[in-house]
What we know:
- The complex is a heterodimer of chains A (110) and B (115).
- Helix content of chain A is 0%, strand content 53%.
- Chain A has no helices and 12 strands.
- Chain A is globular, with a radius of gyration of 13 Å.
- Chain B is mainly β.
- Chain B has no helices and 11 strands.
- Chain B has strands at residues 5-7, 10-13, 19-24, 31-38, 42-50, 53-57, 64-68, 74-78, 87-94, 105-106, 110-114.
- The mean pLDDT of chain B is 93.
- Chain A binds chain B through residues 32, 34, 36, 41-46, 49, 51, 90, 92, 94-103, and chain B through 4, 33, 35, 42-45, 48, 55-56, 58, 90, 92, 97-101, 103-109.
Amino acid sequence: AQSVTQPDIHITVSEGASLELRCNYSYGATPYLFWYVQSPGQGLQLLLKYFSGDTLVQGIKGFEAEFKRSQSSFNLRKPSVHWSDAAEYFCAVGYEKLTFGTGTRLTIIP
Amino acid sequence: KAGVTQTPRYLIKTRGQQVTLSCSPISGHRSVSWYQQTPGQGLQFLFEYFSETQRNKGNFPGRFSGRQFSNSRSEMNVSTLELGDSALYLCASSQTSGVAKNIQYFGAGTRLSVL
Lengths: 110, 115
């Protein structure tokens, strides 16, 4: 069965600081991996995806993620966060359907 | 191009009632998936419809059902509502079935409160 673990429930960073959100997955074959962001009262917006090829993928809003098969990880990074990045972030894996992690809530302090 | 539209945005029902939620996918998208989001269980896959046929189903009781029309619009029905059905129900559309190499676009959701 496929599963996703996001070990950090809540992260607080200062505006302008770098960010890394952790994601570990369990999947029986080549994983299809995604990061979504959800702002309060909103649906999910796709930040980036990994299907194959280059293990460092670039997404929208200056986010990137690195796929590491040996560690079963797909961590999300951003070099400098903005106050508007405050939201909940979900890692997901799937082929026929998406299985989501429990999410990481990101708080930005001035 | 208009995004995924879910109606209504908010619903309040009482236990035992039934409810129908609607989802209009992005024009040209033929697949619609439904997810339930709760604080305790997180985001869970309910089912997927593609070309009016249910393609995949999650682990939910039979009280949860859905259908898709020829114009790809989808409805989700929950019968005999329970307090635990209170959740944000999200609909996602994609061009074809499955998520592999196929991006799902989400609507803003319908917030269901069961009293």
